[in-house]
Write a structure and sequence with these properties.
Length: 208
């Protein structure tokens, strides 16, 4: 049916764009946790700036995410042994988004909590027939995704251990020549790694 895994991607995009009513797709999405064949979302918060630095995003989520929090950057850096450049990079990003304000020369106040650019991330690993390898790869995407799917050529989908996928909350998509069909639709769940989710949301949104 398909000669290469990449031949399945246009079929997946076409079917999923209609099913989820979205045009936001990225192919070969590099995450640091493997390269997902297809990643998509249904909503993007479009911004004029982005924070595509994992360590700076960690600082933002860990230290600068509480509304009305007062911060003296220099004292904060010393107290938590933070890197000065990463700290100010994260704070400058919040300032650009109008999420913080200056209280005086030394103190900042977080006005609003930062929200990721993507509300939800859906990741797909496509395989012609090697479903086991695809399954284990899809598991890794759960670190930053709300739903992960294994997509298999329809002629080999009968080989998949569907019980294993269901127990692991990994979805299954059967791909035909002109359409795809969701066999197992996993439950929506929080990504296992909040920082990875926030960071990769920024990376994804930069494509649009």
């Amino acid at each position: 049916m398909f000669r290469y895994e990449k031949d399945m991607i246009p079929v997946l995009r076409d079917s999923l764009s209609k099913q989820f009513n979205t045009e936001y797709f990225v192919e070969e999405f590099a995450s640091g946790l493997g390269i997902a064949d297809l990643v998509f979302t249904t909503r993007i918060i479009k911004r004029n700036a982005s924070l595509c630095d994992f360590e700076a995003m960690f600082y933002l989520c860990e230290y600068f995410s509480r509304k009305n929090k007062r911060i003296n950057p220099e004292e904060f850096i010393k107290k938590y042994s933070l890197k000065k450049d990463k700290t100010y990079y994260a704070l400058k990003y919040l300032e650009n988004l109008d999420l913080l304000t200056f209280c005086d020369n030394d103190t900042l106040i977080i006005k609003e909590r930062f929200e990721p650019s993507l509300k939800e991330i859906y990741s797909i690993e496509a395989k012609l027939k090697d479903w086991k390898n695809g399954f284990y790869q899809a598991l890794r995407y759960k670190n930053y995704s709300h739903k992960t799917y294994l997509a298999i050529s329809a002629e080999f989908v009968h080989r998949v251990d569907q019980e294993l996928l269901e127990n692991s909350n990994v979805g299954l998509i059967s791909v035909f020549e002109e359409k795809s069909e969701i066999i197992i639709d996993p439950k929506l769940e929080k990504p296992k790694n909040k920082i990875a989710y926030y960071h990769l949301s920024e990376s994804f949104a930069n494509n649009f």
